[in-house]
């Protein structure tokens, strides 16, 4: 029996112009639509040149000159532009406040003039005080930035701003002053009161300048050559320098305290100098720290340790207090470790140039590590001497 073939249904032809019922169904759909589809669905309503007076946005009263699209775009609140605004934009903004009264000519001229100025997006604004005290923990980062906050930095860009010659000269001179104090037989504990006597007034003046803008400008004008721009709203690095030297000289043995201060003076300067010169050619260890700067700190740390324990102490000494040194030219394994590997006390002890070399390499490693370390965002003038002192003291506590 032959099967009856089904007659296919007549396909429905959708008109480009939808019916009102179809338009209502499409209006309820909230999916993404292209601009072309939105224009097809929009009803071509006549556009009034004067606009609707009852509309809540009077700025839309005037029709656009290029497009007659009935879809009105309302201004987005909070948007900022860096382009210059014309007088017409200023007039539209003045009427958008809801006031239908005409403004005086003088006020309108001032408003137009203000609106024509560039509106900055705030991306390159100088750092502002973070709170009541005028600074924040983020302001402790002392990397220089050309923001023009310190006038002398603009006049001496290469000498002061880029290379920081006056600041580094002061930084290095502290190390030679420490060497002079050692050669004069001065004890480290006798230096601590002078450091604290200088720290208290300098810190008080720094707090005062953050509460007085005019005094801060005078302070920056006088001492701007020794400052970094981040210290305009942050604390001066001299405070942390004095505090770090006070801690390492007051709480560690004499030789550890002296070497820790020399690490702060010379290794930090070497890392900053060579990091800026060659840091772009080497891998970056962390933000603001490069392999070039760390290698410079390591080499200078090795040389500083060899200079102090290998030449200054045996040649110019002994000085008062040298008998309390932790490093006396010998290194030995701990007794438990030497017994575990079966070494006699003589075999587990090294002295002379080998001991000095190991001590110097370890000191250089500690100097480089403390220069790279970031301890809660604290200033490296504080962390370098303290971490160097802890590293050398711990090493000599085990092997000294």
From TrEMBL:
GO molecular function, one term: ATP-dependent diacylglycerol kinase activity
This protein's record includes keyword Iron: no
Biased composition (Low complexity): 1-16, 92-106
A biological-process GO annotation: phosphatidic acid biosynthetic process
Region (Disordered) location: 1-127
Keywords, in A-Z order: Membrane, Transmembrane, Transmembrane helix
GO cellular component, one term: endoplasmic reticulum membrane
Transmembrane parts of this sequence: 232-252, 258-279, 291-312, 350-370
Name listed for the protein in its UniProt record: Phosphatidate cytidylyltransferase
Organism listed in the record: Neurospora tetrasperma (strain FGSC 2508 / ATCC MYA-4615 / P0657)
């Amino acid at each position: 029996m032959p099967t009856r073939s089904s007659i296919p249904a007549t396909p429905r032809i959708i008109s480009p112009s939808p019916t009102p019922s179809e338009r209502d169904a499409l209006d309820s759909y909230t999916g993404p639509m292209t601009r072309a589809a939105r224009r097809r669905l929009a009803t071509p309503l006549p556009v009034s040149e004067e606009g609707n007076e009852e509309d809540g946005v009077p700025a839309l009263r005037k029709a656009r000159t290029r497009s007659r699209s009935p879809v009105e775009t309302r201004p987005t609140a909070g948007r900022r532009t860096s382009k210059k605004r014309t007088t017409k934009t200023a007039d539209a903004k003045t009427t958008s406040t809801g006031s239908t009264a005409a403004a005086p000519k003088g006020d309108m001229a001032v408003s137009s003039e203000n609106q024509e100025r560039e509106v900055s997006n705030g991306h390159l604004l100088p750092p502002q005080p973070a709170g009541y005290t005028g600074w924040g923990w983020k302001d402790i980062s002392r990397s220089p930035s050309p923001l023009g906050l310190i006038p002398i930095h603009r006049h001496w860009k290469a000498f002061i701003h880029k290379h920081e010659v006056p600041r580094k000269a002061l930084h290095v001179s502290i190390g030679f002053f420490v060497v002079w104090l050692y050669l004069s037989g001065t004890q480290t504990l006798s230096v601590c009161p002078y450091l604290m006597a200088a720290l208290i007034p300098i810190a008080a003046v720094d707090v005062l300048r953050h509460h007085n803008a005019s005094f801060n400008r005078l302070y920056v004008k006088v001492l701007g050559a020794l400052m970094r721009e981040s210290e305009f709203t942050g604390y001066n690095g001299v405070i942390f320098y004095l505090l770090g030297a006070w801690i390492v000289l007051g709480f560690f043995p004499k030789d550890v305290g002296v070497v820790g201060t020399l690490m702060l003076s010379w290794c930090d300067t070497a890392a900053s100098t060579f990091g800026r010169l060659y840091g772009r050619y080497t891998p970056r260890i962390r933000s603001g720290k490069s392999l070039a700067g760390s290698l410079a700190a390591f080499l200078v740390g090795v040389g500083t340790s060899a200079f102090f324990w290998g030449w200054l102490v045996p040649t110019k000494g002994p000085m008062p207090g040298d008998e309390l040194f932790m490093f006396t030219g010998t290194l030995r394994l701990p007794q438990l470790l030497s017994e575990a590997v079966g070494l006699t006390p003589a075999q587990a002890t090294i002295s002379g140039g080998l001991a000095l070399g190991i001590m110097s390499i370890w000191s250089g490693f500690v100097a480089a590590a403390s220069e790279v370390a970031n301890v809660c965002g604290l200033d490296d003038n504080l962390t370098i001497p303290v971490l160097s002192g802890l590293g050398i003291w711990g090493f000599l506590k085990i092997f000294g």
